[in-house]
Amino acid sequence: MLVGDVTITASRSKIVDFSDSILDNSLSIIVRRTANASPDLLGFLAPFSFKLWLTLLGVAIYGGIIICLFERKGNEAFRDRSIISSGAMSVWFSVGTILGYGADFHVATAAGRLFTIGLYMLSLILVATYTANLASDLTISKSQSVISGIDDIRKGKIPFGRIGIVVGSAVEQYYLREISDENRNYYSLKSQKEIYSKLLSGVIDAAISDTGLLQYATNQLYCNLTIVGEDFDKSAYGIVMPQQWLYKQDLDVNIISLQESGAIDNLTTIWFETSNCPDPSVISTSMGIEAMGGLFIIFEAISVLSLLLFLWTQRLSIKDYLLTSACRKKPSAQPDA
């Protein structure tokens, strides 16, 4: 008699006898848990393409030119300002309106107001689209997996040579029959344990095996591996015995008795359904500073440029202050004896 993870199949039943089913079985796919992508300092720019960002820059400058053309003579804010200063204020107004912030002055002409409506419409759509795309990118980056089920394997979403199959198992028979059309194009494995070692070392990307074995492994031993997709190819485990074994009927009666008492269900819950690994659904998915690192770097660069601009505009006042301070510290001349 042999007790183990032996699947009842027609080909095996020609050689040996099986007891009644001791546990329902099926096949599942195991893969590595998706690792967090390397932090991208410019990830906040991903929702828009490079060409679109350039287009927005061009629109902002174009809007500044139009506002300057419309408002320079009829707006009090532009009075007594040079063309460069007026142009800078107009570009500031255009950028602020597109970003949804606005500017510190208002347009005064009818043409300016009409053009501002266009900028507001542009802002409304762009800000909403950017927010939606950024949220979508962040969601996908947290949930992305190599495959999602057996259909992806059939479609060749990953190379067949990177799918691990234990040679001589019922899984191999299923793979040859249902997926590869008798073509042994998979990565051959010698044992169940080799599935986990090859996945962790990156030799294979996925493996097919009995659901019960994979549940135990992913819940108790290998927390960085996970089962993906729905199970398939339903079957059952049975106890192996010689054909015409004298005690087969007694064994079947005792198995049925254990099933009726709930003993097998209790063992299934303890060994296969109870997990010692952290639940990925409760792991924090908050955005780290790395994801927005580039944004803060750009902000710091703008801050430095603003400081330099302030020092340049106040250079004369700073120079006078330093000279005055130096004169105050200079010691008074001593009178002649």
From TrEMBL:
InterPro entries: Ionotropic_Glu_rcpt, Iontro_rcpt_C. The keyword tRNA-binding does not apply. GO terms for cellular component: membrane. It is a multi-pass membrane protein. Keywords: Glycoprotein, Ion channel, Ion transport, Ligand-gated ion channel, Membrane, Receptor, Transmembrane, Transmembrane helix, Transport. The keyword Glycoprotein applies. It comes from the Eukaryota. SMART domains: PBPe (SM00079). It holds the Pfam family Lig_chan. Residues 15-274 form the Ionotropic glutamate receptor C-terminal domain. One of its GO terms (molecular function) is ligand-gated monoatomic ion channel activity. This is Ionotropic glutamate receptor C-terminal domain-containing protein. It comes from Didymodactylos carnosus.
